[in-house]
């Protein structure tokens, strides 16, 4: 079934290095790509219906079958409050179009393809919809932020003063320590070539 994507959107996705036209047309793993508006009302997020591809994943090859932790709201609040700090600071950064900054193999790109406007396209950048990408994104962000393991106990994250939800990184703690960690995080992100979105440098109050 064709994906409901307008020609101008196809050109935008090609220009951003997210998709490329396939020739000849594949016979397997055809999926559908959708665009959903982002909160700013100006941009769209590309989502791929990867249920067929996800069903073929061999989860037994992944440690603990790919399970990992996201902090619950209670622990997220504790991180942000930095209750143990005498002079607390907090900082936050969003990473822009994060999934599309990763790369994957040609075989995976060909397996995640869709048909629209009489042509078939391969998703040459990892798609939102692939069941393994949340684990990949969370693990990569944790490494860049020098945070605990994605399978660490929530209190390890609270004590470290870090909360990560895929492409959003928040750090909190003593002012001097947060300043140091912030500078190091920005340096590591720039070295890795990560595109930065909205940032809130160390402050006593998030806006």
Written account of the structure:
The protein has 207 residues and is of the alpha+beta class. The chain is 31% helix and 26% strand. The strands form two sheets. The protein has a five-stranded mixed sheet with strand order 1-6-5-2-3. Strand 7 and strand 8 form a beta hairpin. Helix 3 runs parallel beside helix 6. The longest helix has 18 residues. It is elongated, with a radius of gyration of 19 Å.
Quick summary of this structure?
With 207 residues, the protein is α+β, with helices and mostly antiparallel strands.
Specify the oligomeric state: single chain
Low-confidence stretches: none
What count of helical segments does DSSP give? 7
Number of strands: 9
Structural class assignment: alpha+beta
What is the strand content? 25-35%
Defining traits:
207 residues; elongated; 7 helices; 26% strand; alpha+beta; four-stranded antiparallel sheet; five-stranded mixed sheet
Compile the SSE list and pairings.
Blueprint lengths: L6 H9 L3 E3 L8 E8 L6 E6 L1 H4 L18 H9 L6 E8 L10 H6 L1 E4 L2 E5 L9 H12 L9 H7 L1 E4 L2 E7 H18 L3 E8 L4
Parallel strand pairs: 2-5
Antiparallel strand pairs: 1-6, 2-3, 4-8, 4-9, 5-6, 7-8
Helix pairs in contact: 3-6
């Amino acid at each position: 079934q064709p994906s409901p994507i307008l020609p101008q959107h196809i050109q935008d996705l090609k220009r951003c290095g997210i998709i490329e036209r396939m020739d000849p047309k594949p016979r397997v793993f055809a999926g559908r790509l959708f665009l959903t508006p982002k909160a700013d009302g100006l941009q769209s997020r590309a989502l791929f219906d990867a249920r067929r591809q996800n069903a073929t994943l061999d989860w037994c090859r992944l440690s603990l079958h790919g399970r990992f932790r996201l902090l619950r709201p209670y622990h997220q609040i504790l991180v942000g409050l930095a209750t143990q700090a005498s002079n607390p600071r907090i900082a936050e950064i969003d990473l822009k179009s994060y999934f599309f900054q990763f790369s994957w193999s040609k075989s995976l790109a060909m397996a995640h393809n869709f048909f629209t406007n009489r042509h078939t396209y391969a998703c040459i950048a990892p798609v939102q919809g692939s069941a393994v990408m949340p684990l990949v994104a969370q693990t990569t962000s944790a490494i860049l932020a020098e945070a605990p393991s994605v399978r660490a106990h929530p209190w390890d994250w609270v004590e470290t003063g870090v909360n990560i939800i895929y492409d959003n990184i928040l750090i909190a703690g003593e002012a001097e320590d947060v300043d140091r960690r912030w500078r190091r995080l920005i340096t590591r992100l720039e070295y890795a070539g990560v595109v930065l979105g909205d940032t809130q440098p160390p402050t006593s109050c998030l806006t």
